[in-house]
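Internal ticket - ligand job 71, zinc ion:
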Amino acid sequence: MSEPFTPEAESYWQLVPARTKEVVLTNVWCRQCQGRTTMIQVSGEMVAGDLLLTGICNRCGAKVARLAEGA
Ligand SMILES: [Zn+2]
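stdout (structure tokens):
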């Protein structure tokens, strides 16, 4: 894993089960595609106690983001 996660985000992300990670990363809303997409080139940071994942849509390249809530 070479994603640019902050150390805090990395620790949080490591505790997320692999299946949940996959669900989180493949169910990202893209405004440009008007649908769910997969986030690639993922980076992560902690925002107010939640892990915020940001990356780009693998279909159109638009910036996408989501919280890893419930993880
Ligand atoms: Zn898109």
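Auto-summary: The two ends are 19 Å apart (CA to CA). The first strand starts at residue 28 and ends at 30.
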